[in-house]
Amino acid sequence: MKKFLAFAFTAVMLTSCVSDKQIKEVILKDPNLIADAIKKHPAEIMMALQTAARDAKDAMAKKRAEEEQKKLLESIDKPLVPEIRDDEAIRGTKGAPITLVEYSDFQCPYCTRGFTDVVAPLLEKYKGKVAFVYKHLPLSFHAEARMAAAYYEGMRLQKPELAFKFHDELFKQDAQAKLRTHKERFLKKLAKKLGADMNKLAKDVKSDAVKKRIEADEAEARKFGIQGTPGFLLNGVPIKGAYPLSYFENILGKLKEKGKINL
After folding, report:
1. Cα distance between residue 78 and residue 239, in whole Å
2. Could you tell me the pLDDT band of residue 65, with boundaries at 50, 70 and 90?
3. Is residue 158 a contact partner of residue 201, using CB atoms and an 8 Å limit?
4. Bond into 42 cis (ω within 30)
């Protein structure tokens, strides 16, 4: 109601040939003037309110876009630096001009979209020019996500290609529903199907090394202000959320313009 009266007050001011001070004095003396003006000119005032609201919305959107652009340019000039460990499972080409790091959750539906709509197309379109690193950010409300992350790491310890296949299977249609329903039984069945050494996997999944690795990924995500999934670093530029492929390609274009990459 307060916002409405404020808009109404503005509308009255805009349609009156008097000073702000005069209007304020009159309104304070007789607040019913606003109500009377609305009653007598409802259409005109509503139109003024709608125009003011639309203009305010457009101004806010423009300001947000300008702030995002400013942050983007700052991130390009001062990129974040994730840890790329010596034993990192790098998908694509090690040392490629494009480095894409993802902080993800195997139970997150937006992460499924992030892989199928962004990561996979980037790996294909820029074949030989992308190094993709998958890191973990299992969310507390996804009960099986941490366990799935441990299985991924256990598979990675056996062979990176096994981990990649495991990753892709978990992001296929209906896989998350099966994980939610069948829990660890589904993970074991999938690992066996992919050819994992099940005895070794059973030990590695529960190991301190795997636990600490997942925790290190989570800590790094927090350090970079990434709290939800998916979160990405594209050559150090943070992307928080499931943005479309065009958003990533726009950043690649900016990086190229600034001389940060050569594609």
Report:
1. 14
2. low
3. yes
4. no
Q: What share of the chain is helix, strand, coil (3-state, %, to 5)?
A: 65, 10, 25
Confidence at 68, pLDDT banded by 50, 70, 90: low
Q: Give the pLDDT of residue 57.
A: 79
The answer to whether domain 90-257 has CATH 3.90.230.10 is no
This model's pTM is above 0.85 = no
DSSP string, 176-241: HHHHHHHTHHHHHHHHHHHT--HHHHHHHHT-HHHHHHHHHHHHHHHHTT--SSSEEEETTEEEES
Give the pLDDT score at 43.
84
For 24, 95, 165, 184, 248, the CA distances from 161, given in Å and listed in that order, are: 72, 18, 6, 21, 25
Question: Which single residue is written with the structure tokens 């001011």?
Answer: 13
Please give the span between the terminal C-alpha atoms of the chain, in angstroms, as a whole number. 55
The secondary structure element, H or E, covering residue 103 is strand 98-104
Q: Determine how many CB atoms are found less than 10 A away from the CB of residue 183.
A: 14
Q: What residue spans define the domains of the chain?
A: 2-77, 90-257
Read off the tokens for 238.
Answer: 């943070």
Pairing of strands 130-136, 98-104: parallel
